[in-house]
Amino acid sequence: MKTFLDFLQKQNFPKAKSLGGFFVGEKVLQVAQKDRFVYVAGDFVSASKLKKGLGDCGKRVQIISCGRENEDEKDVNLNVFANAISLFLKGELDGLIFLPSSVETKFDLKFLKEKFSLFAGQNIPIEKLSKKLSSFGFERVDFVNSEGQFAVRGEIVDIFIPGSDYPFRVEFFDDEIEKIISFDFATMNTQKLEDKIEISPLYLKFGNDSAFDLCEEVFVDEPSKIENECKILAKSREKLSWNRNDLFLNFADLDLKKYTIFSNTTRCDFENKTIGAKSYITDFMSLKNDVVMYTKSGVNVFLFAGSFYQILKEFLITNHISFREFDGQLQ
User: Fold this and answer.
1) What is the pTM of this model?
2) I need a labelling partner for 222 at 20 to 30 A (CA). Which of 262, 306, 318, 331 fits?
3) Minimal CA–CA distance to 289: which of 319, 325, 323?
4) CA-to-CA distance for 57 and 63, rounded, in angstroms?
């Protein structure tokens, strides 16, 4: 798949910022050419389809579906939101997909960029480490058994970093870290010795930043639908005692000309004129007809088989349709 994406990037495609007639497959290929991206979808179904397609292209993507629902700055329900952004900032995710509820939630990006490392030989008082963990939103408990917790017992500090398979045990001698190990909190068995661990903020601090500030490549899918959904969410908050407009982005105020727009309801700078939204999974005869039609017209046809590769291969052979695995070159 990487070979094909590299091939696409070398083609002289229109550089339009508003694209019409694009369906899931075309959107996936358009987005997958970017190293890092933010995508705003109108609903969870379309977001899930896009995530699957991007995953098939080798992209590491996470959907952020939750949004702020109260005025508790350290609302634990938003920890997954903060963690996804931290992973994106560290380069462990290639893309983030936002829904209307999450894209309108504002946060402090500078705070989320803060991080600190712990490693053997480092000098840091346990009390200072405890205060730093608390300021990042970690909960102090007697024994860790969930992500986002830490415990202090004598010269041992246990930390369960979100996204980690196991919590970490930091062993001190006075103010110096002697070693760091990961361990299974259920059995207390040691997993392995760690050279270094990195800790990022756990909660979504109030701020004036949004998904649109995370990177240069931002895609907005059907903006009119997203705007309507955001208006519905804003209307539902009017009856709440905690409603604070400063915590939310007004989607209608955005200058969307700065971003790449997918829209099948408005006139766009570039209109895709291909066969459109078709599913060949249960209709291989339509596939045969379309392949024959395009090849006879001298059009290059690319088929993305995924898990259906063997079935598709046998179908093409049975129907005497010549094909080859793409090697980056047109012949």
Assistant:
1) 0.85
2) 306
3) 319
4) 16
